[in-house]
Amino acid sequence: MNMHEGTVKVILNECDRMSKQAALDEKQEMHIRLLAEEMISMLPHLMEYGSGKFWINNDDGVFEMHLSVAPRLTASNKTSPIAKVMNSDISMKSMVRRICGIIDKAASRGSELPDEDANRTSWSLGSYIARLKQQDPDKSKSDEWDELEHSILANIADDVIVKNVENTIELILIKIIPAKA
Questions:
Q1: Containing domain of residue 58, as a range?
Q2: Is residue 113 a part of any domain in this protein?
Q3: Into how many domains does the chain fold?
Q4: Residue 91 has pLDDT above 50, yes or no
Q5: Is 155 within a domain?
Q6: Contact in structure between 108 and 83 (CB atoms under 8 Å)
Q7: Residue 69: pLDDT above 90?
Q8: Which of 72-86, 107-121, 154-168 has the largest mean confidence?
Q9: Taking every pair of C-alpha atoms in the chain, what is the biggest distance, in angstroms?
Q10: Is the pLDDT of residue 50 over 80?
Q11: 178's torsion region: left (phi>0), alpha (psi -120 to 50) or beta?
Q12: Helices 26-46 and 94-109, interaxial angle, to 10°?
């Protein structure tokens, strides 16, 4: 997948098609669309690593948006794409930047992802939030809680997972939509 306007349209159309197929209501469709837009906001930077694949699954109301990238680090891109993002004036939310940073570290380290547990091959927003709750149960105004409160991903997605398996990095956005009664 190359990053251009056609790619964005394909991703949005696929998400809209899955929403219609699942007979989601307007709010649920909007949530799927917003999550797709958050993923799209990361595409230009992540695609600097190499080509990628996008797909969306719906398994009984568990929607998963997948973006898979096989990083190719060469002499010309030794400066990580995410480092460029961190130093740029691109208007990305802090949580998006954090996730891009995790992907960047995974690409440069091989299979190990940054986490408090050594040698982990996946990172989860849900686990990250659980650790923050344990460290700061009162949710005082730390930078981490502030970025979570203002993040579309943290407020709409049920989880965000970054995995590194066999030198392929996969970003998965999960949204659970309960069955209608």
A1: 5-176
A2: yes
A3: 1
A4: no
A5: yes
A6: no
A7: no
A8: 154-168
A9: 56
A10: no
A11: beta
A12: 50
